[in-house]
Amino acid sequence: MATETGKNVILLPQTNQLIGLYSIIRDQATKRGDFVFYSDRIIRLLVEEGLNQLPVEETLIKCHGGHEYKGSRFLGKICGVSIVRAGESMEMGLRDCCRSVRIGKILIQRDEETALPKLFYEKLPEDISERYVFLLDPMLATGGSAMMATEVLISRGVDASRILFLNLLASPEGIAAFHEKYPEVKIITGGIDEKLDEDKYIVPGLGDFGDRYYCI
Amino acid sequence: MKMSSRGLDSTTDSTSQFATIEKTEPSKRYTPPWTKPYIIGIGGFSGSGKTSISQKIILELNQPWTVLLLCDNFYKALTEEERKLALASQYDFDCPAAMDLELLVEKLDSLKRGKKTEIQIYSFSEHNRTEKLFTIYGANVIILEGIMALYDQRLLDMMDIKVFVDTDLDVCLARRLTRDILYRGRDLVGALQQWERFVKPNAVKHIYPTIRNADLVIPRGLDNTTAIDLLIQHVKKQLAVKSKLHIQRLEALGHNFQFNVQSCKNLHILPSTPHTRGIHSIILSKKTERTDFIFYFDRMSNLLIEMALDTLTNYTSVDIRCIKDYTYKGLKQTLEVIAVSVIRSGDCFMNSMKKSIPDIPIGKLLIQSDASTGEPHLHTESLPKREHLAKYILLDAQMIGGAGAIMAIQVLIDHKVKQEDIILVCYLLSEIAMRRLFRVFPEITVVVGKLSNSEEVDTTYNMEGFKDSDWPFLNRFIDSLYFGTD
Lengths: 216, 486
Known about the structure:
A: Rossmann fold; two-stranded antiparallel ribbon; B: Rossmann fold; 2 domains
C-alpha cells in the first residue's frame, strides 16, 4: 500500500523490488530498451495508485451462477494531460490501465530571454472541467513547468482537488514549491530524492528522462 | 459454460481400511500417486505374448502416466569378445547372469519412491547401452515386463501384482522364429541353434520356476481373454482404492488444523481498496463483455504479479552510478526468477507476467482433475532445467479444493526446488485449499487476490464476505472466460 508521506503526497511503497527497478533506470550504463521497459513498469504502478484515489460507489453485482457480490463501480470520468515531451512517455502506461482514455497535451518551454517557463501549445478535451485529470511529467525538480500546466488546467475550470500529478521522481524542494501554490493537487510519486543541486538537477536523480526515453 | 464442481468435497464413504491407514500415516505429508505407483510384474517365456498383454492392459486401464518398463533395457553391456559370440548366435542372453539385475532393482526402487528416473535404452545391434535416455516421472502405474521379471526377490517385493504368462513352448518357438527371421534378419539355422542351445534350456531351468512367484498365471497368453479381463478388472479395482485413498488424504489435509490467517507471514492478500473492489466487480459480473474481462483480469494479474515479486528477498545492495557521478544505494536481484504455469488457468497470467519480466523462463504443468472423482492427475510436465537456485512463481488463477496446486508444488519439490523458493500466485483461493496447502508446505509463499472463508467470515481481510460455498469459489470460470472456450 502506498503511504501518504505528507498531505496530498503519495509515495509508492519502497519495496526491494521498486528500489531494484529504480536501480536499473538510474544507472547511466542502462541501455534505452531496458530504460523504457522498466520505466513503463514503474509508470503502471503510478497509474494504478492514481486510479486508487478515484471515487467509487457501492453497487450490487450479479455474478455467474446467480451469485451476488457487493462490489463497487468506478465513478467520474478521467483524462490524461501530458507535458510535452517527457510527459508523453507516460501515456502508454496510462493506456495500459485505461484503454480509451482521452489525453490532452501541453507544451511548455523555457523562454530564452527570461529563463522562465512559457506556454507554447495546449490541446485539451472540451469537457476537461468535468473530469479527473492525471497530469503526467516524469520528473518534479523545481516544479516550474508543472505549476504552469496546473495553472492552465485551473483556468480551464478543473478543480485543483481533481488533479493528480504523477511523476517517477521528485525533489523535496519541488514538492514544497508546488504545494505552496497548489496544496490541493495530489502528488503521486515513485521516489523522493535527496535535494536539487546548483544546476537544479535532482540528486542522485536519473538524468534527462525525455532524452533517455526517446533518444540516447 | 461447463462448470465442474468441486469433486473433492463430494462425500466419499470411508471404509475401515482407510481409517487405519489415516491413523498410522502423518496427515501432514502429501503422498502423490507417483510415490508408490502400482507396479505390475509380467514374466513368461520369450514369445509367450507378454508384450501384447502389457499393451492390452495399458489400453484398458486408460490411466494417465502408465509406463511400460522393459527388462530388455537392462542387459549387461557386452565385451568385444562377447559381442562376437552374440553375432554368431553363441551368446547366452537367456540366463539371469546376462541381466544387470542390480541396475534394474535400483531403477525400480527409484520409481517406487516417486523419483524422476532416467532409463538408458539398450541397443540389440550394438549389444550395448545407448546414449538415448527415456525419462519416467509421475507414473501412476508401471508394468515391468520381461523373461526375468519374476526372478529377483527384491523386484518381487516391490510389485503389487505378479503375473506369469504360461504359453506352450512350441507356440513360443513358432512365434520366435517368425519374429527372428522376418523382423530381425536372422536365418533359420541360427535361430534354431539359439533356441536349442540357450533359450529352451534356460526357460526350463530359470524362467519356468518363477511361475511359483506369480499371483496369477495366464495360460495360452493373449488368446486367454477371460483371464486377461479378470486381471484388468482386478487392477482397476486396486487403482480405484488407491485413488480413493489419495482423495481422502487430500481432504484430510485441511481438517483439524488451526490456522490463523493474520499471523501467517507467508500469506499475502491483495488489499481491499475501492479500486481493487471495482476490478473484482468487473471480473465477477455476468454482464462484463469478454474483451473487458480479459483487460481487467490482465490488470488484476499485473497487481498480483507485482505483489509476488515484492515478496522476493533475494537482493543484494549495489552502488549505482548516476549522472554527474552521483551514487545511488540500489538493490539488485541475485536469483533468477522462473514462472511455472498450471495449464490452463495459470496461462491467464502469462500476458502480465511477460509485461513484468519479458524474458522470464516458463515451465508448464498439465494437471487435470478426474471429472467423476475430483482426483487430480499429472498429465505432463516441462520445466526449465536449472542446476542453480532460482525462485519459482507458480501461477494458477483459481483454487477450489487445492489438490491440483498441491500436486504442482510436489512436482517442483521433486525437481529439487525448495519450499521457500516457491511463490504461488492465485486470484481466487478458498480457505480450505489454503489450509491444505500450508499444512503440507508451510514454507511456501502464497499471493492471493481474494481469499474466502469456510465458516465465519473474517471481515478484516474478507470485507466482501466471500465464503467457500459461494459460486465463484466453487466453479472454475476464469480460464473459460479468458480463453473463450469451456
